[in-house]
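cron nightly-structures :: item 1 of 1
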Amino acid sequence: SREVLRLRGEHEFPVPPLAVPRAGHRPPLPALAQLGAVALFVRQARAARPAFVLSEENAAAVAEICARLDGLPLAIELAAARVTVLPPDALLARLDRRLQVLVHGARDLPPRQQTMRDAVAWSYDLLTADERALFRRLSVFVGGFPLEAVEAVASAAGELAIDPLDGVTSLVEKSLVRTDDRSQFPRFVLLETVREFGREQLQRSGEVTATRRSHAMWYRDLTERAGTVLGGGRIDVDWISRLDIEHDNIRAALALAVEHADAETAQRIVYSVGWYWYVTRQWSEGCAWTRRSLACGGSSPPEARAPALLAAGWLSAEQGDYDRALPLLDDALTLARAIGNRELEGQTVYAMGLAALSRGDLDAAEAAFRASLTLYEYQDDPYWKTLSLKNLGYVAYRRGDLAHAGALFDQALAGFRAAGIAFGAALTLINMASLARDRNDLPAAAALYAEALALRRDHFDTVSLASSLRGLAIIAARTHRDERAVRLFGAEEALRTAIGADEPRSGSRLLALAECRERLGEEAFDAAWRSGQALSLPDAVAEALTIPKMTPGGQPAAATAGHGLTARELEVLRLLVAGRSNPEIANALYISRRTVTTHLTNLFTKLGVRNRVEATVAAQQRGLIAEETT
């Protein structure tokens, strides 16, 4: 029957949609052909066009068609019948208007089985008036919705005489709404074909504007709750996971605000979600939305615009777009001071320090971090104060003052641990690992990376996880464990790809990959890379945590005795020996030309040479390059 009858002795046999390929993963052709949805598509396509064959050329399109149609048998049958005139690629391109495409079923079937619109309409027409209103209002959600959000949109365009929970329960029983098991919170989803029908009904009802507005306001409130947690350094796995699941709804809320020039709503959302985009390294998307929020027209109070300017400037700086970032941060600082928001002022000055650090302007970075530290000195906010202290340590590290850097890192780590801020502690451990690596103390560096990784292994914190995986991969490469190194680099990229993160600006990573490729050869390198990308995150973490046990003891700080070069200076020297110019070295290591000049001056002094030719000879005579990679 259409729904359970709620009689004694009744047994329910759910009939789920047919199996479809997992999002972003297409199995080999033989396995793909065995999936229920694909097998039905191929069978019906051959009935309509006997020459049709599932092949490597059309497999991706067929898999995506079946996934887009949610494995619904009638939808797949109607789509497959279209291959008489539309090859799979062309059919897929038209599925954004699927109800217009999925028509012309067999004439000897009941009308409700001849088109998808009629199939859904048949079930929709059997609903009560209040159930129909609830159903069409739920179509405003993208990719599903939590139960608590139902109440926000249920009465958006007029009160309903049905309780939202009872209404959703009824729609689930009638198979118009499905439960979503991806969240720890009660969550539901409309299959996309069903949702398209609901959107049509919502448009015809005249309720679309009010419903979309209520939807946007609910997600504005949700993101602000998340931002309060994430912006305070508490990289909470539950909030990250929740924003992952709700990302499409957040995009829809932002799109509505921008479309209607509701600058305040758009700017409040982007500031809060900005912490999520930063932590998950989705900088490109964050930049796009923050800029749209600032340019969408409409007025907004400085209390909304200043944080949005900060988010836009911070994310632009993370992408290396300093020409855009610095004016945004300047404007944010001016507004923060004008409204007397010292917390926002401190965050903005801190962001300016990060931008200066990335540009290689260590003097400006130090001044900014000291100013941020002062602003937070008398505030009850251990996160930002300790973070500024940590980055003062990083400035010292970049200047080559390793002893001072180590002391500041120790102080910051103690502060983060005392406050119970695991995210900050992990970042500090990663900086300490880099310092140990510069001292050529690879066992200590591996142990510190592993500690950071273990600290964040159960949290979706890609800043720490990706950095730790990358650091341990570099150590594996330097100790000639090339296959394992490449596997970890592949796992790191898979982690970033999974959440749409940008590629890190890491010269050490590029150099390690190049060395592994040269030693392994193309075939072995590619096999290890694919193997690493296929690792699950827990398996990748487990493999990375074996690196400290495999890293032999050495001579900390003494391996470079006689010349005292840091790891960064050795990287510059390696590129110099390879014949790279200063601009090429800067591009390879993602540093400024001024910083390259500083490194060259330092290494010339330490080697006792006067120019590039003498430095090349000295490096070859002393075996410095080989020494650095063993």
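cron nightly-structures :: done
Strands lie at 145-146, 178-179, 187-189.
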